[in-house]
Design goal:
four-stranded antiparallel β-sheet; about 40% helix; 27 helices
Length: about 800
């Protein structure tokens, strides 16, 4: 926590508390400063007794009866001698133009700061509290309340006379009051009451919890969060009360409003003041602790906590111990917490000190990060909030970060950060580069050169410095790489490429692409392939227009293994581009990549089959030879090789299935007939392609065939399955035929509309006569063609059925007459 300026000579417990807080890594939520200038002068001779805060100024009351108006820096702007004794409370209206003051000798004054309007009265008992109407400046709101042994409401009548009314009495001294809108809240010895100034009704009574505490030593703290939310702090208890409207049906003789306690919880220490902060609470606490040495109770530093209220408990957000002057002698009643709603400023008032707490801004956040040496987070925070920060500059934070990394020995990270931090500031770049070189951090120096914008420096000077260094250490890879980068900046790409290839550095491909150096690498293809064949092949294939396939193959002629890598990748991309090299590739695949030989033979349509067959037979590549024989039409030789070389009945059966040739099946059966394992395989797989009886009849009597029973059962099951499939298909066919027949019948039974628009398809005249009284005869076919009966030819002698001439002529099937109309 930030301490409030210089420390007083304190107890051992105080210094221990401070040391614990210094070790805390949690960033404080508030920052603190002592209100000085005129306040310091006042409190050297007097003691503060109360204070109130307005957005424009402060009003401070003292034990010697003075009231001082101060600006927000603590400078005195006005002074009022109100009483020779202690000022108990000061109240301001919202406009800041009227002030009410009460003192221990019973004096009450309400007056205008900028007008002659005033009220003076002296009572026969100490007046502890005063509150003027928030809108006292209005003529209709000339009201204020005072409290001693009873609570009095003063109102100015129409003749400018003041009249008073007792709002409450009989429960001890009134010690706290807060007026908000139309509601007045006050506390006496028994609890807290709220009065509605409009309805003239008291609407609630909230009793205090701990009656063992003396109300004069541990007074109640009140504050309004808004017009209907009252926060009560008394002893160690906090209650948040909400004023609500009562439903009309519940009124009867009750007040129109009621109070509901929405949150209630206990705190660790005694409450001296409360203030709202958004949906949180700021709590000023009086702390008593027990000394470990003397076992006596002593007054510790007061605490300012930010808490998050919950329904029955609270969550602590932050907690700060405040070193205020004279805290060792203060009591709970000596502390007050005042706040300015507009600016979230909190004033901690004690007899000898006034401390201001305010929310930390982005500059304060950056200060804390720099103090904790969290430079990267500080830099990020500054960049995000660069429009809002006032005391910090991004460049200064960045330079401090670089220096911190260098001091810590993180040279490589420091070098990488230069690009972001230094921007295009040439002077700073040169300074940082030479600093790295001077301290001997070549790696960091190289990183700087790599990330250094090329237009910020005199390249020749740096190149010469690196070359001088290489004379002493010619094999230093870091400096060689740096020199290559400098050559690149200087557009001397040939020298840069030569160094990259010597170092076998991955950036060589990026350099070639970026600066289009393909003409320079035509004689370096082998070097590039040796370095990284995959990247080199991808680059060469992507740029065929710059380095032809023919040129690459020629360059790799003495390195057939690399030639194969290139041609294989080319074939994968396009089966036809390298067709002139397919014959060469057969040998390359056979030598370096047999697993891909068979896929190549299957996909290539340009390789000579005879040459491929010769190579595969020389190397005894059975599978490839089988494929080539079958592709060349010599399926019987291929099958024979499978059976004789591979002895694989499953593969032989699969091959026969693919070829779908009856002669192959016959050859397979003949070859297998004296080999029981082959017979078993055939029995298990032949059923759906060849009649199993052909095989079973040829099995010699007495031959032992493994798993014969299972094979025969499988044949029978396959046969039954085929029968069931046929029956099922037949049922489906019959059902579909019947369904379609019924559908056709329903369609043909439907009537056909014949009107004046229809014509005879033969004579093309209207189908219906113009004179409906004349007799006529019309024939309508299912195809919807219509004819006059006399226009149709006579049916043949072989068939009495009559068909549509048009549909019959178009081979769409005859349409028989469905309707003959006569009249």
């Amino acid at each position: 926590m930030a301490e409030a300026e210089e420390q007083e000579t304190g107890s051992l417990e105080e210094s221990t508390d401070e040391s614990e807080e210094e070790e805390s890594e949690e960033e404080p939520k508030l920052k603190y400063e002592r209100l000085s200038n005129g306040v310091t002068e006042i409190l050297q001779k007097d003691a503060a007794s109360c204070m109130t805060v307005h957005d424009k100024f402060l009003a401070l009351g003292t034990h010697y009866g003075k009231v001082y108006l101060l600006d927000v820096q603590g400078n005195i702007t006005q002074k009022f001698d109100v009483s020779p004794v202690k000022i108990n409370q000061i109240s301001l209206d919202e406009s800041g133009e009227h002030m009410g003051v009460c003192s221990e000798d019973g004096k009450v004054q309400v007056f205008g700061l900028y007008s002659g309007e005033e009220f003076h009265e002296t009572f026969d008992c100490p007046i502890k509290i005063i509150a003027v109407h928030p809108h006292f400046v209005r003529s209709s709101c000339k009201q204020f309340v005072t409290g001693g042994k009873k609570l009095l409401l003063f109102e100015r009548s129409w003749m400018n006379r003041w009249k008073s009314a007792i709002l409450h009495e009989g429960e001890g001294n009134i010690r706290s009051v807060k007026w908000r809108g139309h509601l007045i809240a006050w506390a006496n010895n028994m609890g807290v009451k709220i009065f509605d100034i409009i309805s003239k009704q008291r609407i609630t009574n909230v009793p205090r919890d701990d009656i063992s505490l003396r109300p004069d030593m541990y007074p109640c703290s009140l504050c309004w969060k808004d017009n209907v939310t009252l926060i009560i702090g008394w002893g160690t208890s906090v209650k948040i009360c909400s004023v609500k409207e009562r439903h009309a049906s519940e009124m009867r003789d009750l007040p129109s409003r009621y109070v509901e306690i929405v949150s209630q919880f206990e705190t660790e220490f005694y409450i001296s003041g409360l203030a709202p902060l958004c949906d949180q609470l700021v709590v000023l606490s009086y702390v008593k602790e027990i000394s470990e040495k003397t076992e006596r109770e002593y007054c510790a530093r007061p605490r300012l906590d930010i808490i998050q209220p919950l329904s029955e408990t609270c969550e602590e957000i932050s907690s700060d111990a405040l070193t205020v002057r004279g805290f060792q002698e203060n009591e709970c009643r000596d502390y007050h917490l005042e706040y300015s709603e507009g600016e979230s400023l909190f004033y901690i008032v004690s007899p000898r000190d006034v401390v201001v707490a305010k929310e930390r801004d982005q500059d304060d956040h950056i200060d804390w990060l720099l103090e904790k040496k969290k430079y990267e987070e500080a830099l990020m925070a500054a960049e995000i909030s660069q429009k809002n920060i006032k005391r910090h500059k991004i460049l200064d934070i960045g330079l401090a970060y670089i220096n911190h990394l260098v001091e810590r020995g993180d040279y490589d990270i420091a070098a990488r950060k230069c690009q972001k931090i230094l921007g295009k500031n040439a002077a700073l770049w040169e300074y940082e580069v030479y600093k790295f070189k001077e301290i001997g951090q070549l790696k960091g120096f190289a990183t700087l050169i790599r990330e250094w914008p090329g237009d910020l420096y005199n390249n020749s000077v740096i190149v010469q410095a690196v070359r001088d260094h290489l004379k002493k250490d010619s094999q230093n890879k870091t400096l060689l790489k740096t020199l290559a980068e400098l050559y690149t900046y200087d557009k001397n790409y040939g020298n840069a490429l030569e160094i990259y290839l010597t170092l076998r550095h991955k950036d060589v491909f990026q350099l070639i692409h970026k600066h289009n150096l393909f003409s320079s690498i035509k004689d370096k293809i082998v070097l590039l392939m040796d370095f990284d064949s995959e990247k080199a092949v991808d680059m060469l294939l992507d740029n065929e227009d710059k380095i032809s396939i023919k040129k690459v193959v020629e360059e790799l002629e003495d390195r057939p293994e690399l030639q194969h890598v290139y041609l294989h990748k080319l074939f994968k991309r396009d089966h036809h581009k390298g067709q002139r090299y397919h014959e060469k590739q057969i040998s390359l695949y056979a030598e370096y990549d047999r697993p891909n030989l068979l896929p190549f033979l299957r996909d290539s349509t340009h390789c000579p089959l005879e040459k491929a067959l010769e190579i595969c037979q020389q190397r005894n590549f059975v599978e490839e030879t089988v494929y080539l024989l079958s592709r060349m039409g010599n399926s019987r030789s291929a099958l024979k090789m499978i059976m004789e070389e591979l002895h694989d009945v499953d593969k032989a059966i699969e091959f026969a299935k693919e070829q779908d040739d009856g002669e192959l099946w016959e050859d397979l059966i003949l070859y297998s007939i004296d080999k029981p394992p082959f017979i078993t395989g055939l029995l298990n797989n032949i059923g759906t392609h060849v009649d199993p009886i052909l095989l079973i009849h040829r099995i010699k009597e007495g031959m032992e065939i493994p798993n014969l029973r299972d094979s025969l059962v499988k044949i029978l099951q396959d046969y039954n399955l085929q029968i069931l499939l046929r029956e099922g298909c037949k049922k489906i066919l019959v059902a579909d035929s019947l369904s379609l027949l019924k559908k056709m019948h329903r369609t043909q039974m439907k009537g056909v509309l014949v009107d004046e628009e229809n014509i005879c398809e033969s004579c093309l005249s209207p189908i219906l006569p113009s004179d409906a009284a004349k007799p006529f005869s019309v024939v309508v076919f299912h195809c919807r063609h219509m004819f006059h009966k006399e226009c149709l030819p006579m049916p043949s002698m072989n068939s009495a059925a009559q068909f549509c001439n048009i549909c019959s002529a178009k081979n769409r099937g005859p349409g028989s007459a469905i309707l003959e109309m006569k009249k």
